[in-house]
Amino acid sequence: MLPIDGLTLDRSTTLLTALDQMNRTGRGVLLLVDGSGRFQRTITDGDLRRLLLAGHPLATSLDALPQIASVTVAPDASLTTVVQAMDARKVDQVPALDNDGIPVGLWLRREIPQPILLSTPHLSEFEEGYVADAFRTNWIAPLGPNVDAFETELAAKVGAKHAAAVSSGTAAIHLALRVLGVGHGDVVFCSSLTFIATANPILYQGATPVFIDSEPESWNMSPKALRRAFRDAEREGRFPRAVVVVNLYGQSADMDALRAICDEYGVPIVEDAAESLGATYKNRPSGNFGSIGIYSFNGNKIITTSGGGMLVSDDAALIEQARFLSTQARDPAPHYQHSVVGYNYRMSNILAGVGRGQLRVLDERVASRRAVFQRYAEALADVPGLHFMPEPAWSRSTRWLTTCTIDPRIMGLSRLQFVERLGAERIEARAVWKPMHLQPMFVECPYFSHSPTSVSDGLFEHGFCLPSGSNLTPMQQERVIESVRRIARDAGARSGVRMAG
Ligand SMILES: *Cc1c(COP(=O)(O)O)cnc(C)c1O
Q1: pLDDT tens digits for 323-338?
Q2: Which of 50, 177, 306, 379 gives 182 a disulfide partner, CB atoms 3.0 to 4.6 angstroms apart?
């Protein structure tokens, strides 16, 4: 908000004086007030020009201006409220008035910072070349040289023997379950704390999910809860056909511990590494610890093809089968012949070109996201009741999204209120994924918690993500930090907790 010094004038002012004042103050807007300084209306450059064009002499008083009701806001209005007021009236300036109607400040649209978004695509200098190749050679189709190269390059990057590029991460999970033989009536164990796309394909296959809680150390699947789920399955004599393990917010799950349990029962793992491409687990690339791993290249992920996904595996037969199913399951016959149901899930050669360019900068993108996390963590370390997602010794997270929890008893605010207040500052923050066992569509499904109290319930209730894009400017990060500190300070003042600075 700008100060209003020199911007006010009253109706007795002449057109000439008003033009001069407009010129000197340089804001393109003045505030008409009455004798007691109460706001009457805004006056723009255009308003004065229209008086001149209507033939008013320069000595006319501003009484000649028509009465209009200009939009105003309260002094403590949020940025979002101010922008909404401007948009509703299609104006670019809004004065803030105190309770007596006296102007105390002026908002100009050009001074209002742009929204800061959670995670946006970040292109490099390389994508265009690969996409241009596709155009030049007329490979505007699913499949083609970019797809083949993207598969080879990604497989090499993550140390997998084989890869198949598909139209989305969700499609990749669906194919993974299908080629592992998950079918109607089967049971699939699945991390509860995740995005819905992990669990939906279980239903596509007519199988039933059993949800597994997180552990507090990594926020990912709890080996303890998984062990209990298997013991229960043993008692019932109904073993899962697969276990879907999710790597949340760029961090690997404790794959050795989880794999040991699954191996004991001979059950394959699908590793949902949609969020953890570029991360490592015990110094090895994340996503290649299960029978099949999947990645996503959705627009908000660490690298993107605007939409896409990939399956990786060391088992050639599984990837070959996934490829077969992803292209309508066409039998090797001289005509169109089909013996099983297939899908149209392949990635386009154009989008694979985007992916190849993005893959070349993956390491830089990981470094940037980790740097964003580092900056937040250091600058907000002293905020009472705010804690960042931990990173166990065996993990090197990509910090795809910087995620934290707040303790509402210390903060004096709920997570919902905190996210809303950031939103009012035009900063996009989001609640941690709502666990699958709490989703209305899955209320009937069994759930195994880490301890008597569910860990994922607490993470959902108290957790949220801050803007984390690899393309955030230092100034944008500074704005996030300042806003978080201010919101915490204002809330803390009310709850009696003191905070320095
Ligand atoms: C994004 C995401 C997916 C799905 O990927 P799409 O490419 O959007 O289909 C699956 N699982 C998790 C954990 C994700 O974050």
Answers
A1: 999 999 999 999 999 9
A2: 177
